Amino acid sequence: MSAIADFSTYKVISPIRSALEDDTQVTVLWLDGRTSPYHLLWLRDNCPCSRCVYSVTREQVVEILDIPEDIQAARVTLTDDGNLDILWQDGHASTYDAGWLRAHAYDEESLAERERLKPKKRLWGSSLAVPAFHYTDVMADDAALLAWLLAVRDTGLSLIHGVPTESGALVPVAKRISFIRESNFGTLFDVQSKVDADSNAYTAFNLPLHTDLPTRELQPGLQFLHCLVNDARGGSSTFVDGFKLAEVLREEDPQSFEILTTLPIEFRNRGRSSDYRYQAPIIALGENQEVTEIRMANFLRGPFSTLPATMPLLYRAYRRFITLTRDVRFRYRQRLEAGQLWCFDNRRALHARDEFDPASGARHFQGCYVDRDELHSRIRVLQR
Ligand code: OGA
Ligand code: ZN
Ligand code: ZN
């Protein structure tokens, strides 16, 4: 029976030298000098045996109240192959894989190390060398797929060349990751100048830097934009790294940063048969005050609604943010040509297009969305 209730395997970074027990915990001393305490309740909670975890789903079948709070070990030993064995006083037996234990250690050093090893976002500006990939590689080769997905995760913007210029050709590319997220604009949306446009996106106007669907509780994580034809004059793409702008604002104008991270703004998308609205700050922060999301589309913004004393501060902060989006130091510009596809983190990279002249030639892009969860899940599976 496996000592890991997981679909992954865990490398033994350092073998266990010894394990000491007392009434509340087992302290593991690793050969490389690290010391990791594990509470008895934590260990019993994480028993990987087939009575505690269903081997088919690798999901737990015991609940914490099925285990006495003052659980005691009768015997703690190391197995011949270096794993940790615990015989509990009630007769239950648990074996813990040394690599798994190390990967889940919660001593201070291990927690800090895991924090340090988290993938780092690469912030960028106008001189970005955009990570570029080829359609046939990402379609046929899992290593190329993984390289592309890591670039999307860490840089938030990527380009794919050589995509067939047929309608729907972006679907199999998106499905290399996972499910497409539908919206009221369809599973795929056709970005073309239309007479009966239900969004400024479907005109020939310039579209200022924005994220798509800020009107939803969860903005789509990834956006695909595939160019079928781009023969019209104008219509170049621009991207900015929203995380970079937020960091510049935090540094240069802390008051505006505070306002944009705390005051909710309403975004609206109204159609004849739908009415989407969502209120949230433009910049979202995570538990360590790191920027996790940008929500921004000037053309979808409702009237500001905040106390009179705050209104001038909100306008000041908002103008400051828009000023940053217009700063050439941060703007990466490139015209998308037929057969090319942008894939970017819609909750991070703001995108824009220049005005184009529909009389000068055809312009047809197709787009779709995939959520961030799907990206991270695919990366983990490819990395197993
Ligand atoms: C959109 C959009 C960009 C373009 O449809 O949301 O941003 O280049 N389109 O047309
Ligand atoms: Zn068990
Ligand atoms: Zn858009």
Task: Outline the structure in words.
This protein has 384 residues and is of the alpha+beta class. 25% of the residues lie in helices and 28% in strands. The chain has 10 helices and 24 strands. The longest helix has 16 residues. The model has no long low-confidence stretch (mean pLDDT 96). N-oxalylglycine binds next to strand 22 and strand 24.
Layout of helices and strands, plus pairs?
Elements: E1 16-21, E2 25-30, E3 35-39, H1 40-45, E4 53-54, E5 59-60, E6 73-78, E7 84-88, E8 93-96, H2 98-103, H3 108-117, E9 132-134, H4 135-140, H5 142-155, E10 157-161, H6 170-175, E11 189-191, E12 207-210, E13 222-230, E14 233-234, E15 237-241, H7 242-252, H8 254-262, E16 265-270, E17 275-280, E18 283-285, E19 291-294, H9 311-326, E20 332-334, E21 341-345, E22 349-353, E23 356-357, E24 363-370, H10 372-383
One zinc ion (ZN) binds at residues 201, 210, 212, 351.
Function: Converts trimethyllysine (TML) into hydroxytrimethyllysine (HTML).
Cofactor: Fe(2+); L-ascorbate
InterPro entries: AlphaKG_dependent_hydroxylases, GBBH-like, GBBH-like_N, GBBH-like_N_sf, TauD-like_sf, TauD/TfdA-like
